[in-house]
């Protein structure tokens, strides 16, 4: 499958995806285009360094314009990797079941409007929760609400700050997200007419990397 990625920031998840599809699972899919709402996003520099075509999304609420860019790239799967804007409804509709996001908490906890970046981890710490984690989900027309594809728990340690927790969660994101994207690209996980995710992602090798 031809995969397009949207990213707003540093692009470490994009990098994990680029590495996965270039070196680990070359036949699972191909990243063909990376778009960002910010022309200066380091994510775009990472894409350029990998020889991937990039584009800037000038009007983030203009679904038709975004669809034009995705159509020009012949994108079949759309992957959000730290994309901070709401994806317009026409794009969500066109990519139903082929649009994924990664979120740095165990949704539905600590998700929704305004819950991004350090804010998520600060809220987890303020709640006293002893566990956080990562969620990969299909995207619908609300932030962080679509059908869950897979989750991976991450422990909260007693002396954590939002930065140390964010770093631990980010490592798990880098491991989990490419496996989920590959599973959807291969048709092993699908979004059913019932609005639920069907099929499973094989996470066996994550057990060797992380305790849960
Ligand atoms: C990640 O924590 C992701 O879950 C969230 O934003 C962060 C993006 O990091 N949506 P990066 O740009 O992939 O490094």
- How many beta-strand elements? 9
CATH superfamily: Formyl transferase, N-terminal domain
For the sheet with most strands, the description reads:
7 strands, mixed
Q: Describe the strand arrangement of the main beta sheet, using strand numbers.
A: 3-2-1-4-5-6-7
User: What fraction strand?
Assistant: 15-25%
CATH topology: Rossmann fold
Integer count of domains: 1
* CATH architecture label: 3-Layer(aba) Sandwich
What would you say this structure looks like, in words?
With 212 residues, the protein is of the alpha/beta class. It has one domain (2-117, 134-153, 173-198): Rossmann fold, CATH 3.40.50. 35% of the residues lie in helices and 21% in strands. The protein has helices at residues 12-24, 42-49, 63-72, 89-94, 118-127, 162-185, 206-209; strands spanning 2-6, 30-36, 53-56, 77-80, 99-103, 131-138, 148-155, 190-191, 197-198. A 7-stranded mixed beta sheet has the order 3-2-1-4-5-6-7, with helices on one face. Helix 4 (89-94) links the parallel strand 4 and strand 5 (99-103). Helix 1 (12-24) packs across helix 6 (162-185) and helix 5 packs across helix 6. The model has no long low-confidence stretch (mean pLDDT 95).
């Amino acid at each position: 499958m031809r995969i397009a990625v949207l990213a707003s920031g540093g692009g470490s998840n994009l990098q994990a995806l680029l590495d996965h599809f270039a070196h680990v699972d070359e036949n699972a899919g191909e990243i063909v285009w990376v778009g960002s709402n910010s022309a200066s996003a380091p994510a775009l520099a990472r894409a350029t360094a990998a020889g991937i075509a990039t584009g800037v999304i000038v009007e983030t609420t203009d679904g038709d314009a975004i669809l034009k860019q995705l159509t020009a790239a012949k994108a079949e799967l759309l992957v959000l990797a730290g994309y901070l804007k709401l994806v317009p409804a026409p794009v969500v509709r066109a990519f139903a079941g082929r649009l994924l996001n990664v979120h740095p908490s165990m949704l539905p906890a600590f998700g929704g409007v305004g819950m991004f970046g350090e804010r998520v981890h600060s809220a987890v710490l303020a709640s006293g929760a002893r566990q956080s984690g990562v969620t990969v989900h299909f995207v619908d027309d609300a932030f962080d609400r679509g059908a869950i594809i897979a989750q991976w728990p991450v422990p909260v340690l007693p002396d954590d700050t939002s930065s140390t927790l964010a770093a631990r969660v980010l490592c798990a994101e880098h491991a989990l997200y490419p496996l989920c994207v590959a599973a959807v690209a291969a048709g092993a996980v699908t979004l059913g007419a019932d609005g639920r995710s069907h099929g499973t992602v094989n996470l066996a090798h994550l057990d060797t990397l992380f305790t849960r």
